[in-house]
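Observation: inputs received (chain + magnesium ion).
Thought: call the complex predictor directly.
Action: predict_structure
Action Input:
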Amino acid sequence: MGLYSPIRYLKGVGEKRAAEFAAKGIGTVRDLLYFFPRSYEDRSKIKQISECIEGETVCICAAVYNLPTDRYVRRNMLISSMQVFDESGMISLIWYNNKYVKNNFREGEKYIFFGKISRSKQGRLQIVAPVYEKAGSERFMGKIIPIYPLSKGLSQKIVQSAMELALKEAGRLEEYIPDEIRNRYKIAEINFAMQNIHFPSDFESYNIARERFVFEELLILQLALNERKDKSRSNTGIVFDDVKCIRSFTDTLTFELTGAQKRTINEICRDCRSGRQMNRLVQGDVGSGKTAVAAAAIYMAVKNGYQTAMMAPTEILARQHYESLSKMFEKSEISVVLLIGSMSAKEKRAVLGSISSGTADVVIGTHALIQDSVEFDRLGFVVADEQHRFGVEQRAKLLAKGSDPHMLIMSATPIPRTLALILYGDLDISVIDELPPGRKPVKTYSVGGSMRKRVYNFVADNIRGGMQAYVVCPLVAETENSDLKNAEELAVKLSEAYPDIRTGLMHGKMKAKDKDEVMESFVSGSIQLLVATTVIEVGVNVPNSNIMVIENAERFGLSQLHQLRGRVGRGGDQAHCILITDSDNEITKKRMDTMCISNDGFYISEQDLKLRGPGDFFGTRQHGLPEMKIANLFEDRNILRLSQEAAKLIISNGLGRYPQLRQRCSELLSNEIIMN
Ligand code: ADP
Ligand code: MG
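Observation:
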């Protein structure tokens, strides 16, 4: 058998079990080898029975004194107990509802038992449901044993046995990581690593083995992303001859651009002159001024003779962009049009005409932009606002309306720097890491539910003074016995408690049109207090709103909380964000503290990753990161950095020089699990 043989030919596997393995994505011997343990049990040391202490998990080598005796304590509760002994003492072993266990032992024979020492009601030490093997022929005792991430179906024993065989059958594995890289970064050799990740001879060897696979996983991921970046990007790009013209736009702005905005604009100009298609992500905290950057780029594209399209995730946001860009381009003889689904057929026809004839220079819209009926005369530049709302496919559709137009993607979700390279590996990245001067940070407080009444009185007073406020709840409909404050119920309660205040409600289950209507009323001021779910997270500007209350704040990711509170304080007034949580969990406290002390989206996302771990951080998979088999993107960030360095080195030498690595990359890419 070889590395690529199907595992059903492994002894003890067969058709039925092979199907269970297949459900875990394991088909070949190699798949199996790359199925890594979740944890380990140290069964390497045998303890004397007399030395066993309650609470410890131990291995003992003991002979059977009497075969298991059965007794029913209730109708459905069978207890079997067996006494075993070694030279130091005796201990009871207990099984529940296991009629057949007695058939597995012979009186006087020695076995190795592994399990946790507990104390019976009578005060005697015992082990409940130990794992066991006959002494002298043991396979999974006397060493460190892998525990695999299994649910139902396969048992640990089956997988452990199959793994042991697979390691033998696979023979000597070929090394994929070039020696020069392994030596430079002190990465263990594959055969040593594979043996020790599954059956480590000691924990130090395990660490060395694990490091290797983390490095390997991250290296291949990054090489693969780079391959895709090269493929997805056309080599021919429109050349903008005049990039300096951008100055005649930036000079008309009423403010001085921040250093970060200028740097980003320079990066865009360089791309647009390079002769290669631009594919750039601009990441900037809420309020960092991404719109001005996009406007400058759009201006340049138009002055170079091209049409541009800007796609926003909601109608209201599209309309807001339309208004602000129209204003910014007022004096520049640039024609800006809006295209959204709710326009009348007649309006649409007129706009579509101006797009195809080329009289419209800038088209701002929603998904309506990617419909077949939309034809451009000379589309040369595309902007997608709020990146994570659009899929790759939608972006591609928009791009296809021109011939290799440049693409700018704007995202307000800060990602820790080290991760951005992985998450957006197929894009170039600009970071706007500086806020315009004079911005007052949102004052953030975290309070318990007992303060709720005082919080809402404070909100009400502010509203009576002429301001507006948001209340954000995590869920719409109350699930049974859940104590979450749901938006609907809270909206009713608040309008009863404060009848003089005009309260509105908005949630994700409403029709897009109704949502827009509510948002419109909030923008115009006819709604003063808006109770909503996270649907408000995407950037609509309501300068008059200066308070946000967030209920069950512990339910949100910190980056999401940060994004949410970015909705307030957009006017000149001091803004407040009040996080209400009844949780007294330590981690929750730390997370809320992070929100109260920091206004830096990058710092916050890093803390969140640290406190919750990547599983939760990327819980919604909105970033499309493939599932990691072994690497932990936060804890392994040092290895991540090394692998980033190594990937650069390999790329500069040319991946073509490393056929095995390239093979692994194309496998990963063809699996389609990577980035969407
Ligand atoms: P976001 O990055 O969240 O999209 P916006 O582009 O909406 O931020 O900008 C937020 C506000 O800051 C806008 O009112 C904009 O006019 C203003 N602004 C942008 N850049 C600057 C700057 N350099 N100096 C002062 N105000 C700025
Ligand atoms: Mg914005």
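Thought: report the result.
Final Answer: The CA atoms of residues 546 and 575 lie 4 Å apart. The longest strand covers residues 57-74.
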